[in-house]
Amino acid sequence: MAQAGTERGAAGEVPAADPEDALFDGLRRQAESMIIWGRSDDALALAHDQLESRTLTWGFEAMRVFTEAHLALRAAREERRADVIDSDGDARATAEDGQEHTRLMVYGPVRTSRIAYKKHRKPNLYPQDADLNWAVLHSFSAGVTRLVARASGIVPFGQAAAQVSAAGAITIGKRQAEELATGTVTDFEAFYAARLPEPCPACTGLLITADGSAFPVLPGALRPATAKAALARAQAAGGWPDDPGELRKSKKRSAELVGVADIPPAPRTAGDIITALFGKPLWRARSLLAPVNCDDRRERLRLGSPGGARGRRSAVSSCRAASGTRASMGVVTALPADSQQEDPLDPERILRVLPDRERETFLAQYQQAVDGAHDPAGWKHLKRFLRLWAGRAVAVNRPGFYEARDRALAGTGGGMLLDDAIRQYRTGR
Question: Which of 37, 132, 134, 166 shows the smallest number of beta carbons within 10 Å?
Fold first, then answer.
Protein backbone atom coordinates (compact mmCIF):
# COMPACT_ATOMS: atom_id res chain seq x y z
CA MET A 1 0.00 0.00 0.00
CA ALA A 2 2.87 2.35 0.71
CA GLN A 3 4.29 1.72 -2.76
CA ALA A 4 0.92 2.33 -4.37
CA GLY A 5 0.60 5.56 -2.46
CA THR A 6 3.92 6.84 -3.78
CA GLU A 7 2.77 6.18 -7.31
CA ARG A 8 -0.68 7.80 -6.94
CA GLY A 9 -0.03 10.84 -4.77
CA ALA A 10 -2.11 12.47 -2.06
CA ALA A 11 -5.50 12.30 -3.85
CA GLY A 12 -4.94 8.74 -5.08
CA GLU A 13 -4.88 9.78 -8.77
CA VAL A 14 -2.26 8.78 -11.34
CA PRO A 15 -0.11 11.84 -12.25
CA ALA A 16 -0.51 13.13 -15.81
CA ALA A 17 2.03 12.03 -18.41
CA ASP A 18 4.82 14.36 -19.47
CA PRO A 19 3.42 16.41 -22.41
CA GLU A 20 6.84 16.65 -24.06
CA ASP A 21 7.32 12.89 -23.79
CA ALA A 22 3.90 12.38 -25.35
CA LEU A 23 5.11 14.14 -28.52
CA PHE A 24 7.18 11.05 -29.31
CA ASP A 25 4.33 8.57 -28.88
CA GLY A 26 3.95 8.38 -32.66
CA LEU A 27 7.58 7.28 -32.98
CA ARG A 28 7.06 4.61 -30.35
CA ARG A 29 3.98 3.29 -32.17
CA GLN A 30 5.96 3.28 -35.42
CA ALA A 31 8.79 1.29 -33.84
CA GLU A 32 6.36 -1.19 -32.26
CA SER A 33 4.63 -1.67 -35.60
CA MET A 34 7.98 -2.39 -37.25
CA ILE A 35 8.87 -4.95 -34.59
CA ILE A 36 5.48 -6.69 -34.83
CA TRP A 37 5.70 -6.80 -38.61
CA GLY A 38 9.30 -8.06 -38.49
CA ARG A 39 8.19 -11.06 -36.44
CA SER A 40 5.18 -11.83 -38.64
CA ASP A 41 4.92 -14.67 -41.13
CA ASP A 42 4.53 -12.19 -43.99
CA ALA A 43 7.93 -10.64 -43.27
CA LEU A 44 9.60 -14.03 -42.84
CA ALA A 45 8.33 -15.12 -46.27
CA LEU A 46 9.86 -12.18 -48.16
CA ALA A 47 13.00 -12.33 -50.28
CA HIS A 48 15.85 -10.00 -49.38
CA ASP A 49 15.02 -7.42 -52.09
CA GLN A 50 11.41 -7.18 -50.91
CA LEU A 51 12.57 -6.98 -47.30
CA GLU A 52 15.01 -4.22 -48.21
CA SER A 53 12.35 -2.19 -50.02
CA ARG A 54 9.81 -2.56 -47.20
CA THR A 55 12.39 -1.72 -44.52
CA LEU A 56 13.47 1.37 -46.42
CA THR A 57 9.87 2.57 -46.57
CA TRP A 58 9.39 1.94 -42.84
CA GLY A 59 12.68 3.65 -42.10
CA PHE A 60 11.76 6.77 -44.06
CA GLU A 61 8.49 6.98 -42.16
CA ALA A 62 10.23 6.52 -38.79
CA MET A 63 12.68 9.33 -39.60
CA ARG A 64 9.84 11.57 -40.71
CA VAL A 65 7.83 10.94 -37.52
CA PHE A 66 10.88 11.53 -35.34
CA THR A 67 11.74 14.84 -37.07
CA GLU A 68 8.17 16.02 -36.80
CA ALA A 69 8.10 15.19 -33.07
CA HIS A 70 11.40 16.98 -32.48
CA LEU A 71 10.21 20.10 -34.30
CA ALA A 72 6.98 20.00 -32.27
CA LEU A 73 9.11 19.94 -29.11
CA ARG A 74 10.99 23.02 -30.33
CA ALA A 75 7.70 24.77 -31.02
CA ALA A 76 6.45 23.92 -27.50
CA ARG A 77 9.59 25.37 -25.94
CA GLU A 78 9.72 28.49 -28.12
CA GLU A 79 9.22 31.66 -26.10
CA ARG A 80 8.02 35.00 -27.34
CA ARG A 81 10.74 37.55 -27.92
CA ALA A 82 10.73 41.32 -27.64
CA ASP A 83 13.89 41.93 -29.68
CA VAL A 84 12.62 41.00 -33.15
CA ILE A 85 13.50 43.81 -35.57
CA ASP A 86 13.21 43.63 -39.37
CA SER A 87 15.72 44.89 -41.94
CA ASP A 88 14.05 48.32 -41.98
CA GLY A 89 14.60 48.74 -38.25
CA ASP A 90 10.93 48.30 -37.31
CA ALA A 91 10.26 46.31 -34.14
CA ARG A 92 7.81 43.42 -34.39
CA ALA A 93 5.58 43.65 -31.33
CA THR A 94 2.68 41.51 -32.57
CA ALA A 95 3.24 37.75 -32.32
CA GLU A 96 1.01 34.78 -33.13
CA ASP A 97 1.57 31.17 -32.11
CA GLY A 98 0.90 28.04 -34.10
CA GLN A 99 1.92 29.20 -37.59
CA GLU A 100 2.30 25.89 -39.42
CA HIS A 101 4.38 25.16 -42.47
CA THR A 102 5.23 21.90 -44.28
CA ARG A 103 8.86 21.26 -45.16
CA LEU A 104 9.96 18.64 -47.68
CA MET A 105 12.89 16.54 -46.48
CA VAL A 106 14.58 13.56 -48.11
CA TYR A 107 12.44 11.12 -46.13
CA GLY A 108 9.12 12.90 -46.61
CA PRO A 109 7.04 15.99 -45.72
CA VAL A 110 7.36 17.31 -42.16
CA ARG A 111 4.89 19.69 -40.48
CA THR A 112 6.40 22.50 -38.43
CA SER A 113 4.89 25.11 -36.12
CA ARG A 114 6.43 28.34 -34.90
CA ILE A 115 5.69 31.88 -33.70
CA ALA A 116 5.09 34.53 -36.36
CA TYR A 117 6.03 38.16 -35.73
CA LYS A 118 3.77 40.44 -37.76
CA LYS A 119 3.54 44.01 -38.94
CA HIS A 120 0.96 45.61 -41.20
CA ARG A 121 1.79 45.32 -44.91
CA LYS A 122 5.02 43.48 -44.25
CA PRO A 123 5.87 39.79 -44.49
CA ASN A 124 5.95 37.80 -41.28
CA LEU A 125 9.22 37.00 -39.54
CA TYR A 126 9.95 33.57 -38.03
CA PRO A 127 13.02 33.55 -35.74
CA GLN A 128 12.77 29.79 -35.24
CA ASP A 129 13.13 29.27 -39.01
CA ALA A 130 16.33 31.28 -38.85
CA ASP A 131 17.60 29.19 -35.92
CA LEU A 132 16.95 26.03 -37.95
CA ASN A 133 18.48 27.60 -41.08
CA TRP A 134 15.43 26.85 -43.22
CA ALA A 135 15.39 28.27 -46.74
CA VAL A 136 13.25 31.36 -47.29
CA LEU A 137 12.40 31.07 -50.97
CA HIS A 138 11.28 27.42 -50.98
CA SER A 139 10.21 24.62 -48.64
CA PHE A 140 12.89 22.01 -49.46
CA SER A 141 15.49 20.94 -46.93
CA ALA A 142 19.23 21.32 -47.40
CA GLY A 143 19.56 17.57 -48.00
CA VAL A 144 17.11 17.66 -50.92
CA THR A 145 18.83 20.74 -52.35
CA ARG A 146 22.22 19.06 -52.09
CA LEU A 147 21.02 15.95 -53.92
CA VAL A 148 19.44 18.03 -56.71
CA ALA A 149 22.54 20.19 -57.15
CA ARG A 150 24.83 17.18 -57.26
CA ALA A 151 22.68 15.35 -59.83
CA SER A 152 22.11 18.47 -61.95
CA GLY A 153 25.84 18.88 -62.40
CA ILE A 154 25.96 15.53 -64.20
CA VAL A 155 22.65 15.02 -66.02
CA PRO A 156 19.83 17.27 -67.32
CA PHE A 157 17.29 18.68 -64.88
CA GLY A 158 14.60 16.16 -65.80
CA GLN A 159 16.88 13.20 -65.11
CA ALA A 160 18.19 14.86 -61.94
CA ALA A 161 14.63 15.24 -60.64
CA ALA A 162 13.92 11.57 -61.41
CA GLN A 163 17.09 10.44 -59.60
CA VAL A 164 16.31 12.44 -56.46
CA SER A 165 12.69 11.25 -56.45
CA ALA A 166 13.81 7.63 -56.75
CA ALA A 167 16.35 8.00 -53.91
CA GLY A 168 13.96 9.48 -51.33
CA ALA A 169 10.34 9.58 -50.26
CA ILE A 170 9.30 12.74 -52.12
CA THR A 171 8.66 13.58 -55.77
CA ILE A 172 10.38 16.55 -57.43
CA GLY A 173 9.52 17.97 -60.83
CA LYS A 174 11.88 19.20 -63.52
CA ARG A 175 11.06 22.88 -62.92
CA GLN A 176 11.62 22.49 -59.17
CA ALA A 177 14.98 20.80 -59.78
CA GLU A 178 16.01 23.63 -62.09
CA GLU A 179 15.07 26.30 -59.52
CA LEU A 180 16.87 24.51 -56.69
CA ALA A 181 20.04 23.96 -58.74
CA THR A 182 20.04 27.58 -59.89
CA GLY A 183 19.56 28.80 -56.33
CA THR A 184 22.61 26.89 -55.08
CA VAL A 185 25.00 28.91 -57.28
CA THR A 186 23.81 32.37 -56.32
CA ASP A 187 26.86 32.84 -54.08
CA PHE A 188 29.34 31.64 -56.73
CA GLU A 189 31.17 34.95 -57.04
CA ALA A 190 31.22 35.46 -53.28
CA PHE A 191 32.69 31.97 -52.83
CA TYR A 192 35.73 32.76 -54.97
CA ALA A 193 36.04 36.32 -53.72
CA ALA A 194 36.51 34.98 -50.19
CA ARG A 195 39.21 32.57 -51.34
CA LEU A 196 41.52 34.78 -53.39
CA PRO A 197 45.05 33.49 -52.79
CA GLU A 198 47.99 35.61 -51.78
CA PRO A 199 50.50 36.68 -54.46
CA CYS A 200 52.83 33.85 -55.37
CA PRO A 201 56.63 33.95 -55.22
CA ALA A 202 58.40 34.84 -58.44
CA CYS A 203 59.63 31.26 -58.86
CA THR A 204 56.08 29.82 -58.95
CA GLY A 205 54.79 28.96 -62.39
CA LEU A 206 51.30 29.64 -63.75
CA LEU A 207 49.44 26.69 -65.29
CA ILE A 208 46.51 27.37 -67.61
CA THR A 209 44.58 24.40 -68.99
CA ALA A 210 41.67 24.64 -71.40
CA ASP A 211 39.37 22.06 -72.89
CA GLY A 212 36.48 22.73 -75.22
CA SER A 213 33.83 20.77 -77.00
CA ALA A 214 31.10 21.45 -79.54
CA PHE A 215 27.49 20.52 -78.76
CA PRO A 216 24.69 20.12 -81.32
CA VAL A 217 21.84 22.56 -80.75
CA LEU A 218 18.41 23.10 -82.24
CA PRO A 219 18.25 25.31 -85.35
CA GLY A 220 16.39 27.99 -83.41
CA ALA A 221 19.22 28.23 -80.84
CA LEU A 222 21.94 29.02 -83.38
CA ARG A 223 23.48 32.46 -83.60
CA PRO A 224 22.19 34.54 -86.53
CA ALA A 225 25.35 34.14 -88.62
CA THR A 226 25.57 30.40 -87.92
CA ALA A 227 21.88 29.90 -88.62
CA LYS A 228 22.22 31.74 -91.93
CA ALA A 229 25.15 29.53 -92.96
CA ALA A 230 23.28 26.40 -91.91
CA LEU A 231 20.20 27.43 -93.91
CA ALA A 232 22.28 28.14 -96.98
CA ARG A 233 24.00 24.79 -96.73
CA ALA A 234 20.68 23.00 -96.23
CA GLN A 235 19.12 24.71 -99.24
CA ALA A 236 22.13 23.88 -101.36
CA ALA A 237 21.76 20.24 -100.39
CA GLY A 238 18.09 20.16 -101.44
CA GLY A 239 16.29 21.41 -98.34
CA TRP A 240 16.51 20.99 -94.57
CA PRO A 241 16.91 17.25 -93.82
CA ASP A 242 14.45 15.37 -91.69
CA ASP A 243 17.27 14.38 -89.34
CA PRO A 244 19.30 17.44 -88.19
CA GLY A 245 22.14 15.06 -87.39
CA GLU A 246 22.80 14.78 -91.12
CA LEU A 247 24.25 18.26 -91.09
CA ARG A 248 27.92 17.92 -90.29
CA LYS A 249 28.55 21.63 -89.87
CA SER A 250 26.82 24.84 -88.77
CA LYS A 251 24.73 23.10 -86.16
CA LYS A 252 26.98 23.24 -83.12
CA ARG A 253 28.02 25.72 -80.46
CA SER A 254 31.25 25.50 -78.53
CA ALA A 255 31.79 25.56 -74.79
CA GLU A 256 35.20 25.80 -73.17
CA LEU A 257 36.33 25.33 -69.59
CA VAL A 258 39.56 26.94 -68.42
CA GLY A 259 41.39 26.15 -65.19
CA VAL A 260 44.26 28.04 -63.56
CA ALA A 261 46.63 26.70 -60.93
CA ASP A 262 50.02 27.41 -59.41
CA ILE A 263 52.98 25.18 -60.21
CA PRO A 264 55.40 25.02 -57.28
CA PRO A 265 59.04 24.58 -58.31
CA ALA A 266 60.00 20.91 -58.58
CA PRO A 267 63.69 20.61 -59.49
CA ARG A 268 64.50 17.36 -61.26
CA THR A 269 67.66 15.84 -62.58
CA ALA A 270 68.05 14.53 -66.10
CA GLY A 271 67.88 11.00 -64.72
CA ASP A 272 64.51 11.70 -63.09
CA ILE A 273 63.10 13.02 -66.37
CA ILE A 274 64.37 10.09 -68.44
CA THR A 275 63.06 7.59 -65.90
CA ALA A 276 59.62 9.24 -65.84
CA LEU A 277 59.31 9.41 -69.62
CA PHE A 278 60.89 6.15 -70.73
CA GLY A 279 60.94 3.96 -67.65
CA LYS A 280 64.72 3.65 -67.73
CA PRO A 281 66.47 2.68 -64.49
CA LEU A 282 68.42 5.40 -62.77
CA TRP A 283 71.75 3.72 -63.50
CA ARG A 284 71.02 3.89 -67.24
CA ALA A 285 69.91 7.50 -66.99
CA ARG A 286 73.15 8.41 -65.28
CA SER A 287 75.14 6.66 -68.01
CA LEU A 288 73.88 9.22 -70.52
CA LEU A 289 75.48 12.06 -68.57
CA ALA A 290 78.49 10.33 -67.06
CA PRO A 291 81.91 11.99 -67.60
CA VAL A 292 84.06 10.36 -70.29
CA ASN A 293 87.35 8.69 -69.45
CA CYS A 294 88.63 7.52 -72.80
CA ASP A 295 91.74 5.83 -71.35
CA ASP A 296 89.60 3.53 -69.22
CA ARG A 297 87.24 2.94 -72.14
CA ARG A 298 90.09 1.89 -74.47
CA GLU A 299 91.52 -0.36 -71.73
CA ARG A 300 88.20 -2.17 -71.42
CA LEU A 301 88.04 -2.55 -75.21
CA ARG A 302 91.54 -4.03 -75.28
CA LEU A 303 90.71 -6.55 -72.57
CA GLY A 304 87.42 -7.47 -74.21
CA SER A 305 84.04 -5.79 -73.87
CA PRO A 306 81.01 -7.88 -72.89
CA GLY A 307 78.90 -5.79 -75.23
CA GLY A 308 80.42 -7.37 -78.36
CA ALA A 309 81.18 -5.54 -81.58
CA ARG A 310 78.18 -3.30 -81.18
CA GLY A 311 79.27 -2.18 -77.73
CA ARG A 312 82.83 -1.58 -78.94
CA ARG A 313 81.63 0.60 -81.81
CA SER A 314 79.48 2.66 -79.46
CA ALA A 315 82.35 3.12 -77.01
CA VAL A 316 84.79 4.16 -79.74
CA SER A 317 82.28 6.68 -81.07
CA SER A 318 81.85 8.09 -77.59
CA CYS A 319 85.59 8.52 -77.10
CA ARG A 320 86.00 10.17 -80.48
CA ALA A 321 83.17 12.59 -79.75
CA ALA A 322 84.62 13.43 -76.35
CA SER A 323 88.19 13.84 -77.59
CA GLY A 324 87.14 16.12 -80.47
CA THR A 325 85.89 19.66 -80.50
CA ARG A 326 83.30 18.97 -77.79
CA ALA A 327 85.68 17.39 -75.31
CA SER A 328 85.43 20.38 -73.04
CA MET A 329 81.76 19.57 -72.32
CA GLY A 330 82.78 16.53 -70.29
CA VAL A 331 79.62 14.53 -71.10
CA VAL A 332 78.79 11.71 -73.50
CA THR A 333 76.31 12.72 -76.17
CA ALA A 334 76.07 9.27 -77.80
CA LEU A 335 73.55 6.67 -76.64
CA PRO A 336 74.65 3.74 -74.46
CA ALA A 337 75.41 0.37 -75.95
CA ASP A 338 71.74 -0.64 -75.92
CA SER A 339 70.14 2.11 -78.01
CA GLN A 340 66.68 0.53 -78.09
CA GLN A 341 64.47 2.94 -76.16
CA GLU A 342 61.01 2.02 -74.94
CA ASP A 343 58.20 3.81 -76.76
CA PRO A 344 56.49 6.20 -74.29
CA LEU A 345 53.16 5.51 -76.08
CA ASP A 346 53.48 1.74 -75.70
CA PRO A 347 50.24 0.56 -73.99
CA GLU A 348 52.13 -2.11 -72.06
CA ARG A 349 54.54 0.47 -70.67
CA ILE A 350 51.68 2.79 -69.70
CA LEU A 351 49.85 -0.08 -67.98
CA ARG A 352 53.01 -1.10 -66.12
CA VAL A 353 53.70 2.43 -64.86
CA LEU A 354 50.11 3.18 -63.79
CA PRO A 355 49.05 2.48 -60.19
CA ASP A 356 46.61 -0.36 -59.61
CA ARG A 357 43.67 2.03 -59.08
CA GLU A 358 44.11 3.48 -62.60
CA ARG A 359 44.59 0.30 -64.62
CA GLU A 360 40.96 -0.81 -64.88
CA THR A 361 39.90 2.59 -66.24
CA PHE A 362 42.80 2.65 -68.69
CA LEU A 363 42.02 -0.83 -70.04
CA ALA A 364 38.32 -0.04 -70.52
CA GLN A 365 39.00 3.23 -72.36
CA TYR A 366 41.85 1.66 -74.33
CA GLN A 367 39.53 -1.07 -75.62
CA GLN A 368 37.04 1.57 -76.79
CA ALA A 369 39.79 3.54 -78.52
CA VAL A 370 41.10 0.41 -80.25
CA ASP A 371 37.62 -0.52 -81.45
CA GLY A 372 37.21 2.98 -82.86
CA ALA A 373 40.61 2.82 -84.58
CA HIS A 374 39.31 0.14 -86.97
CA ASP A 375 37.87 3.12 -88.81
CA PRO A 376 40.75 5.16 -90.35
CA ALA A 377 39.13 8.30 -88.95
CA GLY A 378 39.57 6.95 -85.40
CA TRP A 379 43.35 6.47 -85.65
CA LYS A 380 44.06 10.04 -84.55
CA HIS A 381 41.84 9.55 -81.53
CA LEU A 382 43.80 6.45 -80.48
CA LYS A 383 47.12 8.31 -80.73
CA ARG A 384 45.72 11.22 -78.73
CA PHE A 385 44.37 8.78 -76.13
CA LEU A 386 47.80 7.18 -75.67
CA ARG A 387 49.50 10.58 -75.37
CA LEU A 388 47.04 11.67 -72.69
CA TRP A 389 47.49 8.50 -70.65
CA ALA A 390 51.28 8.60 -71.03
CA GLY A 391 51.21 12.03 -69.44
CA ARG A 392 48.75 10.87 -66.80
CA ALA A 393 51.04 7.96 -65.91
CA VAL A 394 53.77 10.49 -65.12
CA ALA A 395 51.44 12.73 -63.12
CA VAL A 396 49.78 10.09 -60.92
CA ASN A 397 53.17 8.77 -59.79
CA ARG A 398 54.14 12.12 -58.34
CA PRO A 399 53.73 12.34 -54.54
CA GLY A 400 50.57 14.11 -53.45
CA PHE A 401 48.80 13.93 -56.84
CA TYR A 402 45.55 12.41 -55.57
CA GLU A 403 45.45 14.67 -52.49
CA ALA A 404 45.86 17.76 -54.68
CA ARG A 405 43.14 16.53 -57.05
CA ASP A 406 40.71 15.94 -54.16
CA ARG A 407 41.37 19.42 -52.78
CA ALA A 408 40.70 20.95 -56.21
CA LEU A 409 37.43 19.03 -56.64
CA ALA A 410 36.28 19.98 -53.14
CA GLY A 411 37.05 23.65 -53.73
CA THR A 412 39.52 23.78 -50.82
CA GLY A 413 42.63 24.27 -52.90
CA GLY A 414 44.37 27.52 -53.75
CA GLY A 415 42.82 28.07 -57.17
CA MET A 416 41.22 31.20 -58.59
CA LEU A 417 39.16 32.27 -61.59
CA LEU A 418 40.95 32.80 -64.88
CA ASP A 419 39.96 36.47 -65.02
CA ASP A 420 41.35 37.05 -61.54
CA ALA A 421 44.60 35.24 -62.37
CA ILE A 422 45.15 37.24 -65.56
CA ARG A 423 44.28 40.49 -63.79
CA GLN A 424 46.71 39.72 -60.97
CA TYR A 425 49.41 38.68 -63.43
CA ARG A 426 49.08 41.91 -65.40
CA THR A 427 49.11 43.98 -62.23
CA GLY A 428 52.30 42.28 -61.13
CA ARG A 429 53.95 43.14 -64.40
Answer: 166
